[in-house]
Amino acid sequence: MAKLIVDGKICNDDWQVVPADATELPDGRLIVSLAMWRDGDERLAGRDQVGVWLEADDDPAEIALALPSLPVVAVNFPKFADGRGYSTAALLRTRYGYRGQLRAIGEVLRDQFFYLERCGFDALQPPEGRYSDTQLEAALASLADFSEPYQAAVTPPQPVWRRHVREGLAR
Amino acid sequence: MYRYDAFDQRIVDERVAQFRDQTSRYLAGELSEDEFRPLRLQNGLYIQKQAPMLRIAVPYGLLSARQLRRLAHIARTYDKGYGHFSTRQNIQFNWPALEDVPQILEELAEVEMHAIQTSGNCIRNFTSDPFAGVAGDERIDPRPWAEILRQWATFHPEFAYLPRKFKIAVNGAEQDRAVIQCHDIGLDLVRDDAGATGFRVLVGGGLGRTPMIGKEIAAFVPWRDILTYCEAILRVYNRFGRRDNMYKARIKILVNSLGIDAFRARVEEEWGHGRGGPATLTEEEVARVTSHFVDPDYRPLAGDDAGYLSELGRDKAFAAWAKRNVRAHKRPGYASVVLSLKKTGIAPGDITDGQLDLVADLAERFSFGEARATHEQNLVLADVEQSRLGELWQLLRAAGLATPNIGLLTDIICCPGGDFCNLANAKSIPVADAIQQRFDDLDYLHDIGDIEINISGCMNACGHHHVGHIGILGVDKKGEEWYQITVGGAQGNDASLGKVIGPSFARAEVPDVIERLIETYVDNRYADERFIDTARRIGIEPFKARVYTKREADRKVANG
Fold first, then answer.
1. Which ipTM did the prediction report?
2. Model pLDDT for residues B503-535, shown as the tens digit of each residue
3. CATH topology assigned to domain A3-163
4. Domain residue spans in chain A?
């Protein structure tokens, strides 16, 4: 079973991400592409829990109304240097008020964990096989790269000068 | 200038630890070259022709004496005894070893410096007016705002992997000295009719492969809202900027393809959601940052110093230096001094460890312990008493920092070019040198007067060639280095992009071409008319005609 990080802890994944071009749907809890979810694939009928994954250029507004009933939303990073997913996550968490699991999938690497988490991802799923168990354990440290970030984001939602008293320069 | 508190210090210290770990994982083979590249770039580290190049941030150009000494130490210890000031007011070292970079960053953090976001597809170092706080034409001091923006942009989690690099400049004076029209975002501090502070916002300017003058997206954004407004611009760009072609990925391409009105509509829509959010600035936060930029303890002086004025009459060399390198100051009896890093025979912007140490000493003795870097690649001591200019001049002259050429033809803006840079198509430093050698008569230089020659070794335009009165661009023609010449570019309030005069030239021809262009100007100018004004009045045709007619004649003789 694939490993992922949820709320800063390593977990076994009980969801399966269904690729956009998949023809067969496996059993179990599935995270399907926006197209499959939107088009109401009949094979999804009767499944109690289905999540949706968004491609980097998908508009999160398309799932806004369904968010209260979605247990998982994933955002794909086709390349780790493609930063669109950070804005997608921020929009889902703030503008659309999504409270369920928000999962980063695709090229999700430890040196981006800190930024991903700040933009609202609570689940981080590195590519299968990219990290050994030991490496994934070590990678958790990257979530704490910076203890007091300057600016407001999804988390923390206030800039440092609203979180703490900062003194000016006395003359 | 801004001094770190515990929060600022912790962030740079944690950055050092983070990069130390990333570097060791890279060296251990746990991080691939592709994975490490953006991490090192966002720490200013390039892999260049000779060795890595480390670009250290000098936020809006401000440096303390202590920081200058640390840079001198780094030049001595980890480099070959010199550094290079860039056109973004930063300093670069061309010879550090990759393994030493975490240690260098640690030593920088000790003096409140870093290399954060000096490269990579993120929000880069903020640039501003090197005469901020001392210029007579200043409306609003841009430094506190540049610092507030710097902190907001530092490790902004949503904007670390933009389609392309993103440069923001801030101006607060009547005359723009920060090239705000050629930045991804240009911020112009203004007051509304009620006297309240805000920003006129330009977007989509830039040089590089597709040069464009920025367009006004907002006439007035209230100061409280500037961070949320910038976030709205950045979010629209991050989501919709092109990522399929790096040459079309800058925000200017998005602004141009949508049109400024449609782009503005998207930003306004986005801002409608973010406006008033937690990033909305407070009076307390602005006051906190502004407290770092209050005037130093100027002595009350009545007016121009009599001794200085009489020295100007007595010593021709001193007067020539004062005319070009000394600027008026807002306070009576004070002046700002530009230290020329454009001595012939030295690469423009280069400075040795010894000179860095000396500038630190002089900053302490003459200018309240601070210096500034300019985008023209010179240094400034901003707060010098006129009565001490003679003494300062002697010391600068002895150190090779008093070349009286600020704003003259030999004050050339020049990128490192093919001698150092992987991106370059052609060398630029030898071209600058050849031009400086050719124009070695100081009287003639003063007669030519204000002119800006900018040289870039490739179309990435680090040497700002598009906005040079004369621009020189290195191009590759079938593996050979050639140079394309433009005329009529300018920075400032009436910024413009130069026009190409015709087919490019071999390197050896360039000084001749510059001479022909200058002759054309001298023949056509009205009294006291600057090169750029003549060029605008007569257009490029007379320049073109003179250059290419002469070239044909020379070739006929040579082939004759």
1. 0.97
2. 999 999 999 999 999 999 999 999 999 999 999
3. Rossmann fold (3.40.50)
4. 3-163
